[in-house]
Amino acid sequence: MSEFALTNREWHVMDFAVSRFPDAFLLGSYARDLHTHGLACLPLGRRTVDADFAVEVATEGNFSELVEGLTPLSGTGLCFTVDGFQLDLIPFGGIESEGIIEPQKGVTLDVTGMREAHEHTVRFALRDELVVRCPDLTALIVLKVIAWDYRQTSTTKDGEDLDLLLQATSSGEYEEEVWADEESGDLVGWQPHCIGPFRVGRRVPERYAPDVVARIRKIVDGDSAEAIVASLQIQPHFEELARERILAFASGIDHALEGRDS
């Protein structure tokens, strides 16, 4: 894995989160970079100023017990500070209503796909005895699709992250898997940048409930794909590659669904 350098404060907050919440898993820009930079060897993406971890809880009371003693920051009720560094904790599980949580009145967050992400985590050894759990690349892509749908034009970072994650599916340590998958290669005409996204799309119906699959598929249809690409604000050539990656992901979902129906 490519070098994953962190500041002392970043190391400390990671150590703290892993020790305090052993069943939690890493999200956000750090999880993205573990895949896109650490494994896929792509350039580092834009880093946020907080560390995000997801924790499964049965009730709001359970979450309150988990964070007891932490120093809260104002806002959503999910943000805390550890040694001057922001730690965001995203609860999911028994507190959801149709995939939505409301940590404070009027503050909502879509956690659709978190349960499946929890079921499909991989472990990354960042340094001696510091191992973090992180969603695998497929789960992280689905979470980013959901995030884009929920926030859409309020931020450009979801589209940027999604494009980078889709690039990762065919790069670095993932590249060998791409060239070994002859069936997927044949189905997308052996376009290297499309095979990885197509393969990820094929996994979606295996992991997610039909209503979630239908939602994901709708998000990456032609019109939404155009909106995602437009948010990237990149040159036309790179726009076309980004568009083709998104549509290959959608095509992979369709192919898997057609296989189920046949």
Overview of the molecule:
- With 262 residues, this protein is of the alpha+beta class.
- 53% of the residues lie in helices and 18% in strands.
- It is built from twelve helices and nine strands.
- The chain has helices at residues 8-20, 28-39, 60-66, 114-119, 137-151, 157-168, 175-180, 182-187, 192-207, 210-219, 222-232, 236-261; strands spanning 25-27, 50-57, 71-72, 79-82, 85-93, 100-104, 107-110, 121-127, 130-135.
- It has a five-stranded mixed sheet with strand order 1-2-5-4-3.
- Strand 4 and strand 5 form a beta hairpin.
- Helix 6 crosses helix 11 (222-232).
- It is globular, with a radius of gyration of 18 Å.
Q: What are the defining features of this structure?
A:
262 residues; 12 helices
Topology readout:
Blueprint: H1 8-20, E1 25-27, H2 28-39, E2 50-57, H3 60-66, E3 71-72, E4 79-82, E5 85-93, E6 100-104, E7 107-110, H4 114-119, E8 121-127, E9 130-135, H5 137-151, H6 157-168, H7 175-180, H8 182-187, H9 192-207, H10 210-219, H11 222-232, H12 236-261
Parallel strand pairs: 2-5
Antiparallel strand pairs: 1-2, 3-4, 4-5, 6-7, 8-9
Helix pairs in contact: 2-6, 5-6, 5-9, 6-11, 9-12, 11-12
